[in-house]
Specification:
Keywords: NAD, Oxidoreductase. The structure is a single chain. With about 550 residues, this protein is of the alpha/beta class. The protein folds into three domains: about 180 residues, Aldehyde Dehydrogenase, Chain A, domain 1, CATH 3.40.605; about 190 residues, Aldehyde Dehydrogenase, Chain A, domain 2 (3-Layer(aba) Sandwich); about 140 residues, 3-Layer(aba) Sandwich (Aldehyde Dehydrogenase, Chain A, domain 1), CATH 3.40.605. Strands 9-10-11-8-7-13-14-24-18 form a nine-stranded mixed beta sheet, sandwiched between helices. The model has no long low-confidence stretch (mean pLDDT about 95).
């Protein structure tokens, strides 16, 4: 991996040029993407040295990356799978085959055998389906839409799918916000790469005093209209093309207003092919409306008018997704309240919502923004999911190692970034939703006792479900698999420790993933599966004055 990183560094300019031609990436967007790919290679190589004891590789891992980050995301997927000891098949996005081919060439040049890393460009048709469902594939890393994850699961219900999926991300602009900073970060978050990022802020929720301040919309309008739209290869371009002519969701966002909405800036198609659109901003978006709840992946920003801060938080949480979320506020107590209540994997305070850095802001979401037994990319737990771990054999040892991990890491907010101008915390949250565990006669008493211990140690609400009465669990709900699937609404997690086949597609249609892995023997591997990972990045300066501005504390609940 070190050799690969060195090659990536030396070929930075060539890679940037390929991305600009392949996907329309601007130079300013492509350059940090190369840096991210290098960081992935080095970080996973170092992480692998600590991850092997008590485990074996999955086998063959299929990487199915997106077109919007055609270099960093597939490189991260390939490097993580290789670092965990697996053979890898890279199936590039059909739109960005040239960039993925560059990845394969660089890794082969670095010494990865072609028998270990295979490059298989296919369209997303029957050939792609054959790859995903092939019996020789032991795991799939997907970065794409939630609908794609659901499709893969319908093809192969038992699939070991690790997916980072969609996001409907918002920045809350408080009455206490600095308007200049808020506008800058909002525009960058909404229109970077023409809004084609899963982390992009397609929604702003603005408190009354800012919404009614003419300066806010005047500055926002001026900033958006100053963006230069053009080809990614041009140095002057700030907003590049969309990857293909707008599909139904994006076309609706670009061209349609719902009741009460109006255009602050109306988007315009500026070429005949449909790839170039000027950015748009729509006002008057209502709670529960289409623009409030839907992702569209393009250069449109929707704005909601919130009567107060707590209502704005409720609206920010009121989507099916939980990938990134931002707030601009100079009131320290508001920042603390926001951090404690927002349901998303990556939180950003007084900064933009894009540009997560490996190991500094490990990336991944909650709710429908994450599918399967996965963890944050570029984080401490990611490689764990790419190996099969020895199962529980000694309950006392597992509880001891779990307790050690919880006391040292799981119950704390840790900032290991060492930065003065930015605080970056990594922490674990207890879901306020019920954690459902399906058991049967094959589920060991040690496993059941461990789960009881998890509930007591972490404060999680855990519910057992079983086909018939189980004398080892006094308060289990007795129900069939179909009845269980029918009654579940939206628990954050389901653990399947039964020999019954889980109704994977039925559950996923409700946004629920069932983790079918047995209880692992190592506490630092097993206990993180029961909590929610979160990264919190807080700007710790105002206009270069380090330590100025709010310094919210993070309380662990």
């Amino acid at each position: 991996m070190g050799s690969a990183a060195t090659i990536m560094e030396s070929e930075r300019a060539e890679t940037i040029a390929i991305m600009a031609l392949d996907s329309g990436k601007t130079i300013s967007e492509a350059d940090p993407e190369v840096s991210e790919a290098i960081d992935f290679a080095r970080y996973y190589a170092l992480s692998a040295q600590q991850k092997e004891q008590g485990s074996k590789p999955l086998g063959v891992v299929l990487i199915v990356p997106p077109w919007n980050f055609p270099y960093a995301i597939p490189m991260g997927g390939v490097c993580s799978a290789l670092a965990a000891g697996n053979a890898v098949i890279l199936k590039p996005a059909p739109e960005t085959v040239a960039t993925a081919w560059k990845i394969a060439q660089q890794l082969w040049e670095a010494g990865v055998p072609k028998s270990v890393l295979q490059f298989v460009p296919t369209r997303d048709d029957e050939d792609g389906k054959h790859l995903v469902t092939h019996k020789g594939v032991n795991g799939v890393i997907l970065t794409g839409g939630f609908e794609t994850a659901a499709l893969f699961t319908s093809w192969k219900p038992e699939i070991r799918l690790m997916a980072e999926t969609s996001g409907k991300n918002a920045i809350l602009i408080s009455a206490s916000a600095d308007i200049d900073s808020a506008v800058k970060d909002l525009v960058q978050s909404a229109f970077g790469h023409a809004g084609q990022k899963c982390s992009a802020a397609s929604l702003a929720i603005v408190e009354t005093s800012i919404y009614e301040n003419p300066s806010f919309f005047r500055q926002l309008k001026d900033a958006v209209e100053s963006l230069s739209v053009g080809a990614g290869r041009n140095y002057s371009t700030s907003t590049g093309p969309i990857i293909r002519p707008a599909g139904p969701s994006l076309h609706r966002a670009l061209t349609q207003l719902d009741s009460g909405e109006s255009w602050l800036i109306q988007p315009r198609q500026i070429d005949s092919s449909g790839h170039m659109w000027s950015p748009g901003v729509k006002l008057g978006v209502k709670p529960g409306s289409w623009s409030h709840r839907n992702e569209w992946f393009g250069p449109v920003l929707a704005i909601m008018h919130a009567p107060d801060f707590e209502t704005a938080i409720d609206w920010q949480n009121a989507t099916d997704f939980g990938l990134t979320a931002g707030v601009h506020a100079l009131d320290e107590k508001e920042c603390e309240l926001w951090i404690s209540r927002i349901e998303a994997g990556n939180l950003y305070v007084n900064r933009g919502t894009t540009g997560a850095v490996v190991n500094r802001q490990p990336f991944g979401g909650w709710k429908r923004s994450s599918v399967g037994p996965t963890s944050k990319a570029g984080g401490a737990n990611y490689l764990n999911n790419l190996r099969n771990w020895d199962s529980l054999t000694d309950l006392s040892e597992l509880i001891e190692s779990s307790s050690h991990w919880w006391d040292a890491i799981g119950s704390k907010a840790i900032d290991a970034s060492g930065l003065l101008v930015e605080r970056n915390y990594q922490l674990y949250k207890i879901s306020h939703r019920t954690y459902v565990v399906r058991i049967d006669e094959s589920t060991s008493l040690d496993a059941i006792n461990y789960i009881h211990w998890v509930g007591e140690k972490t404060g999680s609400t855990i519910e057992f479900s079983t086909e018939r009465e189980n004398i080892r669990v006094a308060h289990a709900i007795v129900e069939s698999v179909s009845d269980l699937a029918a009654r579940l609404v939206s628990p954050e997690k389901v653990r399947w420790l039964s020999n019954e086949l889980p109704p994977a597609s039925v559950l996923l249609n409700k946004g629920i993933s069932a983790d079918t892995r047995p209880i692992a023997a190592r506490g630092d591997v097993e206990l993180p599966r029961w909590v929610l990972e979160q990264s919190v990045s807080i700007t710790n300066h105002r206009y270069g004055n380090v330590g100025a501005g709010p310094r919210p504390r993070i309380t662990m609940e």
